[in-house]
Amino acid sequence: MRPSQTALWLGLVLSLALLAVGWASARPPIYVSSWAVRVTKGYQEAERLARKFGFVNLGQIFPDDQYFHLRHRGVAQQSLTPHWGHRLRLKKEPKVRWFEQQTLRRRVKRSLVVPTDPWFSKQWYMNKEIEQDLNILKVWNQGLTGRGVVVSILDDGIEKDHPDLWANYDPLASYDFNDYDPDPQPRYTPNDENRHGTRCAGEVSATANNGFCGAGVAFNARIGGVRMLDGAITDIVEAQSLSLQPQHIHIYSASWGPEDDGRTVDGPGLLTQEAFRRGVTKGRQGLGTLFIWASGNGGLHYDNCNCDGYTNSIHTLSVGSTTRQGRVPWYSEACASTFTTTFSSGVVTDPQIVTTDLHHQCTDKHTGTSASAPLAAGMIALALEANPLLTWRDLQHLVVRASRPAQLQAEDWRINGVGRQVSHHYGYGLLDAGLLVDLARVWLPTKPQKKCTIRVVHTPTPILPRMLVPKNVTVCCDGSRRRLIRSLEHVQVQLSLSYSRRGDLEIFLTSPMGTRSTLVAIRCEKSPRALGTSGVLPSLPQVGPYPVGLRRLL
Q1: Is residue 332 flagged as an active site residue?
Q2: Quick check: is 15 catalytic?
Q3: Which of 100, 143, 475, 500 is the most exposed place for a label (fewest CB within 10 A)?
Q4: Which residues constitute the signal peptide according to the record (predicted)?
Q5: Known catalytic membership, residue 370
């Protein structure tokens, strides 16, 4: 290399090195009354300087070192100019190797700023517009946005190229089980009937800070979509949808079920039940897949979500709705299987949910429990980012503890045997994302699940106007061993019965602590219909101790 080139290269290196040492600020420095001083002979020399020039020696900056913190009471605490007198005095001291008058430095917490999306101001349920919202901002300010979590929407497809979805779209979490191809793009129709899945997807994972629409609850989570409702729906289609990539997908969100007509009693077939079982036992490397389910919109027909075998499964986490004002929506179904509640809307004048829509559009008109379940799915994604080792049962415990009655209005609130308020309309209350994440961080794993089956009625029994079936339960037989029941998560009652007009039937289960769960409520059915030959009915989720004692089926 020629000398001139060497000189140029070295000059460039030195320039870069000098630039790396000093930091420029657009604001003028503000000088304070403190100095950092490095002296050769340690503490004694620092004390001598302090006495000589009127400083107060506040001690060493580093333990056992030559750097000291000196402050002068006669110098302004804040000034736009340095104190030149002390600068000159310290410069003349032979034992002072370095000194610097301190300046204020602007530092900001690296919390997540509020999204800049134009419609975030409309997202009243998480932008602190109301006092008791879903407490999403608290979690975002901890840097949690769903990163590393995969959510799949089981519905009528997902517009994967939507401006607010494409960045988070996950093809591995997507499939079309109606046409059996990998593309879940919805089928477009004149009335946009297949917009449901795209709307649910945006609630979970709409991209933030891209200048478009609003933000998803877990806006850095990966989002997939399964097209399975826009065609012939069979037990095979449902089972395959619920079994898609179980080691890749963490959360499945479903906002559908049997007809909400007040007459239908229906649930998953044998294959779908097996898909649920395999999901919770083998999914997520054995931690268990999360199945989030909307509780249903049949309130106008006095429908009861306990008659929906998807929401009342112990393997799903059923989510109900409340309005901005904390009222029960007109479409809400009251049942014992509901775990928790998030926001939606009531009458048409109520503010609704902001999300993505077909044709690369946005909407602020998403509603029903269909809108509530994806909000919960997004919140659970935040909890899984905080603690990826949570099992499906851990999340059920956490959701119960992170749900608060808050301002939710209902006449059936009561305190159960473990001291928690519970309602058939709202489950354990409004889900609080901040509390959910706080609990998730410190949660200890639950012990392995045990199942206890007790046969109560052994022979066919006529149905009387009022029947009481008591059973005292203290132990559970496990093969040849009798085990004392110490805690309880779920209670299910399996019934096989026939009745001339099933809409006239009411069935209750009362716990040893007096908590009464409505298993079947009176429904206004216009024609006599016999109850299905077999139905599994859950009580309110029984998370806690005090499991033993007399249970009454009425």
Answers
A1: no
A2: no
A3: 500
A4: 1-26
A5: yes
